[in-house]
UniProtKB/TrEMBL annotation:
There is a cross-link at residues 146-148 (5-imidazolinone (Ala-Gly)). This is Histidine ammonia-lyase. Belongs to the PAL/histidase family. The gene is hutH. It comes from Alicyclobacillus fastidiosus. Keywords: Cytoplasm, Histidine metabolism, Lyase. Pathway: Amino-acid degradation; L-histidine degradation into L-glutamate; N-formimidoyl-L-glutamate from L-histidine: step 1/3. It catalyses: L-histidine = trans-urocanate + NH4(+). It is an enzyme of class 4 (lyase). The modification 2,3-didehydroalanine (Ser) is found at residue 147.
Length: 511
């Protein structure tokens, strides 16, 4: 991973651009002098509250339903360590490294704002682990999404005290050993600090932001791939005319239509309606409306995630300027849960319409005279037949995954926590749907590129010709039946990384 100039977290937090620099490009992180002062001031305020022997949830009380149990000061340190140990019971495959880095960064942003009451030492050790590449092993399943992402974040917190496991320099190690190798001393938790580490929405938000990045690459790629299919099927360009978009003035619809016009400009295979072909099928004609609606949804989802990225979401929160401590509900993941369910639907539709275009490319009754299943030897060879089957299977699976997780709730903690968001489930499902969409679009792109083999290269638009050449570096032309699994995966990985619309990026395979 390349190293970039340090990202400084200030009172405003971070931008999505700096988030990506840290998570994907290895930029180091620090916090501003003002944030440092805020953290110190908030801790001093908390210690003053404790000296006055005031009761503060999770500081000198039990947790959840046990909040009525008031504990003596001598129990404070054990209370925080026991909290991490007892809550670190998530299960399932570990989150990918980029999600863990995102979780660490987002937790750091939240704590650095100076409303959580942790010591500066906690902020520094979290920063140092992120910068040194000590990544906690965090199982991906087990969060209800309120009181935040308790179980996943507990695994993150355990690493900071030298317990649990961590990935360091490519090796999975006991956290104590990983910290030692990185020259980082484990912290000894004090009042409030265990709770401040685990109470928040950083797991669902981390998955949400990394998925949103891929989803935006998907929608951009979908426009390009649709244009290639339209050209391969001798499509009609009238539906993409600017006047049509002006009278239904969604900016995202207009943006998609403009994209299609740009990609198809100069092609000798597309044109206006004619007596023998007045209209194309919806999967070609309605691309601006369908892709545009998904893009509009993603823009809204991004707004939600960018607010959450720079929010303080633990409980209780301390406000030194006002001299107040509040127990509230900022840990509740409902805003992210709804956004992730929305993303699931928006990206599912991009895959759904893509699969319909693939069907038109391979079906001899619909593909404008192209060979059946895009093979000159149909019958003895199956050509692209089963690629469409795979796309159909993934689209069908997406329909199941797109069922909203946020409409479900199971009470917990003896009914004290009686409404939860299931936001992390929604985020994980959104990530899976987005991966599927990458595969489905890769299949359409393979078929569209193969369909263009029956066109004269000089008559293609300059834009599609460039994409054709890019695809051929990853997927050779069809000569005889072969397995396409690895080629679909490689092409999908490139699409999800934004390489289709930025060929300068290096081509890589999905891990």
């Amino acid at each position: 991973m390349m190293s970039y100039a340090s990202v400084v977290i200030d009172e405003e937090g971070i931008t999505f651009e700096t988030f990506c620099r840290v998570v994907y490009q290895g930029a180091s992180v620090d916090i501003s002098e003002r944030c440092t002062a805020n953290v110190v001031k908030c801790r001093e305020f908390l210690e003053g509250v404790l000296r006055e022997q005031k009761t503060v949830y999770g500081v000198n009380t039990g947790f959840g339903k046990l909040s009525s149990v008031v504990l003596p000061e001598a129990y404070s340190e054990a209370l925080q360590v026991n909290l991490l140990r007892s809550h670190a019971c998530a299960v399932g495959e570990p989150f990918p490294m980029e999600v863990v880095r995102a979780m660490m960064l987002l937790r750091l942003v939240s704590l650095a704002r100076g409303f959580s009451g942790v010591r500066l030492e906690i902020v520094h050790v979290l920063r140092d682990c992120l910068n040194a590449g000590v990544y906690p092993i965090i199982p991906s399943k087990g969060s209800l999404g309120a009181s935040g992402d308790l179980a996943p974040l507990a695994h993150l917190g355990l690493c900071l005290i030298g317990e649990g496991e961590a990935l360091y320099e490519g090796r999975r190690l006991p956290a104590q050993e990983a910290l030692l190798l990185a020259g980082i001393h484990p912290v000894v938790l004090q009042a409030k600090e265990g709770l401040a580490l685990i109470n928040g929405t950083q797991a669902m938000t981390a998955v949400g932001l990394t998925t949103y990045r891929q989803a935006m690459a998907v929608v951009r790629a979908a426009n390009t791939i649709a244009a290639m299919t339209i050209e391969a099927l001798n499509g009609i360009v009238d539906p993409f005319a600017d006047p049509i978009q002006r009278v239904r003035p969604y900016p995202e619809q207009a943006s998609v239509a403009k994209d299609l016009r740009t990609h198809l400009d100069g092609s000798q295979y597309v044109g206006a309606a004619r007596p023998d072909k007045v209209q194309d099928a919806y999967s070609l004609r309605c691309v601006p409306q369908v892709h545009g609606a998904s893009l509009r949804a993603l823009n809204h989802i991004g707004e939600t995630l960018f607010i959450e990225m720079n929010s303080t979401t633990d409980n209780p929160l301390l406000f030194p300027e006002e001299g107040l401590v509040y127990s509230g509900g900022n840990f509740h993941g409902q805003p992210v849960a709804l956004a992730m369910d929305y993303l699931k639907i928006a990206v599912s539709e991009l895959a759904s319409i893509s699969e319909r275009r693939t069907e038109r490319l391979v079906n001899p009754q619909l593909n404008e005279g192209l060979p059946a299943f895009l093979t000159p030897d149909a019958g003895r060879s199956s050509g692209m037949m089963i690629l469409q089957y795979v796309a159909a299977s993934l689209v069908s699976e997406n329909k199941v995954l797109a069922h909203p997780a946020s409409v479900d709730s199971i009470p917990s903690s003896a009914n004290q926590e009686d409404h939860v968001s299931m936001g992390t489930i929604a985020a994980r499902q959104a990530a899976q749907i987005t991966q599927h969409a990458g595969d489905v679009l890769a299949i359409e792109l393979i078929c569209a590129t193969q369909a263009l083999e029956w066109k004269e290269r000089a008559k293609l638009s300059p834009a599609t010709r460039k994409v054709y050449e890019w695809v051929r570096k990853l997927v050779p032309s069809y000569v005889a039946d072969r397995s396409y699994s690895k080629e679909i995966e490689n092409l999908a990985a490139a699409i999800l990384e934004g390489q289709l619309n930025d060929p300068a990026k290096a081509v890589g395979s999905r891990p």
